[in-house]
């Protein structure tokens, strides 16, 4: 199954596994990661975004909860996560590795590609 998203495509995985760590949940069946009020997906980037990120793969914000710290920090639906804590993010797996190395009391430094350009934000697990 292939889903279209902001000029990119996502091939839905059928594996079933859920992993919870530090308030983060990963759903292999739906190929999503829920983090700080955001639902994130793996996707194949289109040419323009691929050129900006120097990669053919990325992680996009499918939905961000309007009541979340991520939304207050400027994250919006359709944003692409380029880096977290100075580590390039090309897949949900990359993001999960970074999150495993984080202390939940430390902020996440997130570099995003948005519909209007680049954006930097700090996100915190602690409200």
Structural notes for this entry:
- With 127 residues, the protein is α+β, with helices and mostly antiparallel strands.
- The protein has a single domain, classed as Pdz3 Domain, CATH 2.30.42.10.
- It contains three helices and eleven strands.
- It has helices at 47-53, 69-72, 92-101; strands at residues 2-5, 8-11, 18-21, 24-27, 32-35, 38-44, 57-64, 80-84, 87-88, 108-114, 117-123.
- Strands 3, 4, 5, 6, 7, 8, 9, 10 and 11 form a nine-stranded antiparallel β-sheet that branches.
- Strand 8 and strand 9 (87-88) form a beta hairpin.
- The longest helix is centred in the last third of the chain and has 10 residues, at 92-101.
- The protein is globular, with a radius of gyration of 14 Å.
- 28% of the residues are buried.
Number of domains: 1
What average pLDDT do the residues reach? 80
pLDDT < 50 runs, ≥5 residues: 1-22
C-alpha geometry: globular
Structural class: alpha+beta
**Strand composition percent:** 35-45%
Broad CATH class: Mainly Beta
Largest sheet, in brief, is: 9 strands, antiparallel
Task: Give the CA-CA distance, first to last residue.
Answer: 37 Å
| Rg, alpha carbons | 14 Å
What would CATH call the homologous superfamily? PDZ domain
Number of helices: 3
- Helix fraction, binned, reads 10-25%
Order of helices and strands: EEEEEEHEHEEHEE
CATH fold-type name: Pdz3 Domain
């Amino acid at each position: 199954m292939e889903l279209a998203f902001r000029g990119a495509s996502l091939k839905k995985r059928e594996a079933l596994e859920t992993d919870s760590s530090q308030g983060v949940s990963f759903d292999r069946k739906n190929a999503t990661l829920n983090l700080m009020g955001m639902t994130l997906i793996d996707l194949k980037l289109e040419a323009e975004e691929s050129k900006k990120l120097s990669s053919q793969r990325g992680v996009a914000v499918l939905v961000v909860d309007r009541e979340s710290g991520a939304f207050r920090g400027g994250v919006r639906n359709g944003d692409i996560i380029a880096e977290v804590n100075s580590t390039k993010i090309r897949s949900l797996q990359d993001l999960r590795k970074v999150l495993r190395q984080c202390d939940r009391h430390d902020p996440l430094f997130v570099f995003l590609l948005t519909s209007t350009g680049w954006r930097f934000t700090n996100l915190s697990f602690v409200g």
